[in-house]
Design brief:
binds zinc ion, three-stranded antiparallel β-sheet, elongated
Length: about 475
């Protein structure tokens, strides 16, 4: 029997606001424990939350960038549960009336586009953090993170493989960074993912029993955890067993998921509208203003690179992996309008350099204008592509522009035909046998002559000119 996986993801993304969602405490990371707290985020009796408008604006940005509908009214709800990192005994979240519904994003799988639906996006506050002391039998609580704004992005169960789940997460993260609402850093916990995984007989429309996998802190681990869950559930069904609905934890050391607790149902949380917060009415003018403030989005820019600049889809995908990279590429094009050549150098030399140095495009040691300057020298036949690579290395080390390096080191090609003719005459005079064979009808020997001239000029001869002069002289 063949099984089909059905996967839906819940992503919690931290919003990059200066202050928390319901109080003025700082959200800055790395402060001493419990130094960024106040009566509101500590859940003291009698305090009242005040909604941070920036949180709503950032969530709207994400919602519009992912094609969601924004209902006129949304509402905050209390999600009640007890845990030592949650001083109020409830988390303020959204339940029946989230801020955004019915969105979608497109992912690319093996060159084909697949649309993944978004059920909803809602706002909520983060809980604190427990620190388990290894040396003493105690656990400590740090409430700095309590009240940090999160948006939860819930997908439809449209994903059918671990690979699709990975592609979807990458698309979401790119958008979050692109529109500047979060840093999308999975390892640091500002972008977290829970995966709902079930399997069903291929061709069936009914959904199987699902498990929720938590505690996954890298893209690779999300894919591995989903693959593990699919295999585990398949084994159970093939042996005639039943999958139990539960929450499982991913163990990145042993590469397995372990049962954590039976999955709670929504009614376990006793959701009810938060009486301290008014229903949130989103003005249509505000929605329109946020919509028009959005930059050209990654998918749009990628399509434009393919249609207007005639770049291959692969190149367009790499160049729009971040807004900084796409901007860098277009800044180069303003100097030298050769999209494919610029793309090749960025994808090859520049990204290779940045990867080796562990730097982002914004920290590139070579500016877009300087890279374009180097490519112009190739274009103008001042240097060959091969010498350009050496110049590029030198630019990265010294920060000097290409032109200066070429001048200082005397790397410019010999494009003076009378100087080249002298060298070529010498080569021809020194190789009578090869000349005879060439004239006897062996055109492959042209490569030999070009090579000899290159050697004599230390690679600086303009190859086009060398070929022209050689052809003329050898015919004579
Ligand atoms: Zn506070």
């Amino acid at each position: 029997m063949q099984f089909e996986p059905v996967i839906g993801l819940e992503v919690h993304a931290q919003l990059k606001t200066a202050t928390k969602i319901f109080c003025g405490c700082s959200t800055e990371f790395g402060a001493p424990p419990n130094s960024q707290t106040c009566p509101v985020c500590l859940g003291m009796p009698g305090v009242l939350p005040v909604l941070n408008k920036k949180v709503v604006e950032y969530t709207l940005r994400m919602a519009l960038a992912t094609n969601c509908t924004i209902p006129e009214q949304s509402r905050f709800a209390r999600k009640n549960y007890f845990y030592p990192d949650l001083p109020k005994g409830y988390q303020i979240s959204q339940y029946e009336l989230p801020i955004a519904i019915d969105g979608h994003v497109d992912i690319d799988i093996d060159g084909a586009t697949k649309r993944i639906g978004l059920t909803r996006i809602h706002m909520e506050e983060d809980a604190g953090k427990l620190v388990h002391d290894e040396t003493r039998p105690v656990s400590l609580v740090d409430l700095n993170r309590t009240g940090t704004p999160l948006m939860e992005i819930v997908s439809e169960p449209d994903l059918r493989s671990a690979e699709e789940a990975g592609a979807y997460l990458r698309v979401l993260r790119t958008i979050i960074r692109w529109i500047g609402v979060g840093d999308g850093n999975m390892e640091e916990g500002s972008f977290r993912c829970d995966a709902n995984v079930s399997i069903r007989p291929s061709g069936s429309d009914a959904l199987g029993t699902r498990t929720e996998v938590k505690n996954v802190n890298s893209f690779r681990n999300v894919e591995k955890a989903i693959q593990y869950e699919i295999a585990r559930q398949t084994d159970i069904l093939l042996e005639g067993g039943e999958v139990v609905q539960e929450t499982r934890l991913w163990d990145p050391v042993k590469n397995v998921t372990n049962s954590m607790r039976s999955k709670e149902e929504a009614h376990d949380y006793r959701y009810f509208p938060d009486p301290d917060l008014l229903p949130l009415v989103i003005d249509r003018d505000w929605v329109n203003a946020v919509r028009s403030s959005l930059p050209e989005l990654p998918a749009e820019r990628r399509a434009r690179f393919v249609s207007d600049l005639e770049l291959p889809g692969y190149d367009a995908g790499v160049l729009t992996a971040s807004r900084g990279l796409a901007d860098y590429f277009e800044a180069c094009l303003e100097e030298i309008n050769q999209p494919k050549q610029v793309s090749n150098w960025i994808m090859g030399q520049l990204l290779g350099l940045l990867n080796a140095q562990g730097k982002s495009i914004n920290e590139s040691p070579i500016s877009a204008i300087d890279l374009a300057g180097l490519l112009k020298l190739i274009d103008d036949d001042v240097i060959s592509g091969k010498i350009a690579k050496a110049v590029f290395e030198e630019m990265a080390e010294t920060g000097k522009p290409a032109k200066q390096i070429v001048e200082e080191k005397g790397l410019a090609q010999v494009s003076d035909s009378s100087a080249l003719e002298g060298e070529i005459d010498k080569v021809i005079a020194a190789s009578p046998d090869e000349v005879a064979r060439f004239k006897a009808g062996n055109p492959k020997l042209m490569g030999f002559f070009v090579g000899q001239v290159k050697k004599a000029t230390q690679g600086k001869a303009n190859p086009k000119l060398v070929n022209q002069i050689l052809a003329k002289k050898l015919k004579a």
